[in-house]
Amino acid sequence: MGFEQMPLQPRLLQNIQAEGYQAPTPIQEKSIPQVLARRDLFGCAQTGTGKTAAFAVPVLSLLAQEPRRGKAPRALVLTPTRELALQIFENFCALGKGLSLHTCVLFGGVKQGPQVASLESGVDILVATPGRLNDLYHQGFVDLSRIEIFVLDEADRMLDMGFLPDVRRVLEKLPEKRQNLMFSATIPEPIKALVDEILQNPVHVRAAPPATTVEKVEQTVYFVDREQKPKLLQWVLEDPRIGSALVFTRTKHGADRVVRDLTRAGVRAAAIHGNKSQNARQKALSQFKNHQLRVLVATDIAARGLDIEGLTHVINYDIPEVPETYVHRIGRTARAGRSGAALSFCTIDEKADFLAIERLIRREIPEVTQHPYPMQNCTPMTKEQKQALRLEKQARAEAARARRAAREKAGAPARKKAPQPPISQKPASQKPASQKPAAQPPRAKRPSPKKAAPEQKRPAPERGARRTPPARAFRPDLEKYVPKGLRRPPKKH
User: Fold this and answer.
1) Is the sign of the CA dihedral 428, 108, 400, 301 positive or negative?
2) Residue 243 and residue 349 in one domain
3) Does 196 share its domain with 135?
4) Count of domains in the chain?
């Protein structure tokens, strides 16, 4: 069934076509008719399968059938992270053009004033993270008494991040009579219990088996010592066919460390994690999407739900401790029918977690042995060594905080705040007549004593950096992990 065969408004169909949707994905084809029929629904689908449109399209269609009465929202979409909330908000805005529906997004990390102002002007669809929603509700700024449709997105991630108590506090504020939609990539036991608790006689829709990887992702693993990971990453990035890569680390400090190493090697990189402001995270993501950055380094929480068009490579710099997280990570690539590659760097101390991943996905991930930094240490660390490493990391983190506090106490000049991200969508006629000029870009980082390339605002050709060998035109040894669609034979002389 195509979108044209579904009972959707003509303007909504035009918006669907304008956004590049040609035919519904399996999750969309199965979900949209059921939601339009006012059924409760549980959807199990991997990332990159089009599940946002699977609930956005029918929600817009249902709400557009009758005008809003009052200012209270009629639909609530609850999602775990700021990035995902903003992404869902943008999808609703794009698909809802011309439908006279007002969408608002609430998330933490930014001032609440603009969000409160958007609420006071009246809302049809509210997209929110649990923390900011509960906060504004208790301040009296949010009215949830007229919610007709409740959408819980990324339910398994809500569980992983410890948000289920916040979700239940939201549920207590909703009217009993409502339509409920719930989506999750995996179905652990607590999620099954939540389905039974929230949904009434639901339709179960599954676009792919739970906890499976995207089939078009070519997966490989490099066994390497921990101290050699920075060199291995730089070596991998010598291949010019890796135009951009999303790199995952376990920790925020680890992400910052990877960015510093890559920057010294002449690779344009930035990090997104919980210690970064929302504006900084959005700037880095925008630069990465616009190819101003070659590498985006992220923690799992910050990257959850990111939709980066054309991303071909995901690199697991650290092996995740939770096997399901691996599935979410590699789901960032191979979207919309494209091919993609997932590379994993595994130390001896991460091998148990890696084997758990193989058991989960029910397949053996091929090993790349032809690389210059093969594993030498085959003895896992003892408990005492692990404890010492943790203490060392804590000491470094505390020292970094102390340095920052000292700089602030010394009276460093305050930086101008970047413009707030958009928080509401209205018809063009309601936009303010004038806007403040964009904030000045942040100052370039202090160059290193020897040689450092100046910070680039636009993509610049890779010219190699200090003590880094030039990029090779072709690397046969890397052919294993290069997506099939990107492979090309070496030039014949």
Assistant:
1) negative
2) yes
3) yes
4) 2
Residues 40 and 165 in one domain: yes
| Listed residue (335, 338, 328) closest to 303, CA to CA | 328
Q: Which residue has the tokens 């609420």?
A: 119
Q: Provide Rg for the chain, Cα atoms.
A: 24
Tokens 């590498």 sit at which residue? Answer: 295
pTM: 0.59
- Tens digits of residue pLDDT in 412-468: 554 444 455 555 554 444 444 444 444 444 444 444 444 444 444 444 444 444 444
Same domain membership, residue 163 and residue 130: yes
Domain housing 100 = 3-206
Backbone phi, psi, residue 105, to 5°: -125, 135
Mean pLDDT calculated for residue range 245-252:
93
